[in-house]
Design goal:
Helices cover 35% and strands 15% of the residues. It is of the alpha+beta class and 368 residues long. The longest helix has 37 residues.
Length: 368
């Protein structure tokens, strides 16, 4: 879903869709014209999803009709018949995803939370169709794709031979749905506002106990790793007084992250999770897969699109609360940023800083 509502993050080849097939409108173009009441031209997303769903149903009807006359090679015919049902389930799954994406694109213009709520049944239905696809393929296909490498990004990385079957992808799509529901509820509790007026955070006094640890200032041109040349290009203004903790990119991916510190007063640690499905990053905390994912108030995004670091990914900020004393932040394997420490009493309204966004703000953060 994140790829449908923000395809540009994935390096879309600009000449691909204009040079293939008849004149058409991609989702974002269709949504903009629909909002502005402009005339559509060529193929449109609603037209295409209607066609693929219809074709899938017609194929099922045809294969069922043909099955009555099959007297030989029945095992091969059964495989063909199963394929037809697979294609139909796949078509229905993506049709529901596109319906959901159109509602999310509409929200970018309307800022009406009900548009996001309307997307939920479509995503739920897409997961139902995908679950059916898993059932149909679990014992009939070895793999769902041919590119089983870390270089593949869509729909998700295939690093270390993972995510190569339809069954392996189902938990990812369920997590997308769960995250979307949670973030929509979070927006509702914030009166539907994505942006908010936020004061600049004042840094809290802490002592880092890890030996040899260095800090980086939240400012343009600062490197966030000691073994990766990527530097900050832009960031949310409220972060400007903070200083992050420098880690090794390689060590984070291979060993995880452990930060020991001492604080005289309660603090919140601001942790930046990368907004991507790359195998190289640590996924943000979620209660759907980890019962302790909110033991320090860290389950919800606090600042979406808070930082732009070319060569890496957009950054969403979460906060972890700690009491006074000696404390330890333990994170799993994968890239993640510790962006600084603020007073534990500071409340952070959920908002989208829109850093790196051009035009209407991207809404893919809703799925993380």
């Amino acid at each position: 879903m994140a790829q449908l509502v923000n395809p540009h993050k994935y390096g879309v080849y600009s000449n691909f869709w204009p040079s293939n097939g008849p004149v058409k409108e991609v989702l974002e173009v269709y949504a903009e014209k629909e909002w502005k009441g402009e005339t559509h031209s060529g193929e449109t997303p609603p037209q295409i999803i209607d066609e693929v769903v219809k074709h899938g149903q017609l194929a099922i009807e045809a294969i069922e009709k043909a099955s009555k006359s099959v007297n030989a090679n029945q095992e091969e015919f059964a495989r063909l018949k199963n394929d037809v049902y697979c294609y139909s389930a796949f078509a229905n799954c993506f049709a529901e995803k596109v319906n959901a994406a159109m509602q999310i694109y509409r929200y970018q213009y309307s800022q009406d939370i009900s548009d996001l709520e309307k997307a939920i049944p479509f995503i739920e239905k897409s997961v139902e169709y995908y679950t059916e696809l898993v059932r149909l393929t679990e014992n009939t296909y070895l793999y769902a794709n041919s590119m089983q490498t870390a270089q593949r990004r869509i729909p998700i990385s295939g690093a270390n031979g993972t995510n190569k079957t339809w069954k392996e992808l189902l938990p990812h799509y369920q997590a997308e749905l769960d995250n979307f529901k949670r973030n929509v509820e979070m927006l509702k509790s914030n009166n539907g506002k994505v942006n908010a007026e936020i004061s600049v955070f004042e840094p809290a006094e802490i002592t880092i106990l890890n030996k040899g640890t260095k800090r980086f200032a939240i400012k343009k041109g600062e490197a966030v790793y000691n073994d990766n040349k990527s530097v900050i290009e832009d960031f949310a203004p409220e972060l400007q007084k903070l200083s992050g903790v420098v880690f090794s990119d390689k060590a984070q991916q291979e060993e995880g992250t452990v930060l020991k510190f001492r604080n005289e007063k309660p603090v919140k640690v601001l942790v930046g999770y990368f907004n991507t499905n790359s195998y190289s990053v640590l996924n943000p905390p979620t209660l759907e897969t980890n019962a302790q994912a909110n033991d320090r108030g860290q389950a919800d995004i606090r600042i979406a699109n808070s930082m732009l670091i070319p060569g890496l990914y957009p950054v969403n900020v979460y906060s972890y609360s700690y009491p006074a004393g000696e404390n330890e932040l333990v994170l799993g394997k994968g890239r993640v940023l510790v962006l600084g420490f603020i007073d534990g009493s500071v409340e952070i309204p959920t908002h989208d800083a829109g850093v790196g966004a051009t035009g209407t703000p991207a809404m893919d953060w809703l799925f993380y």
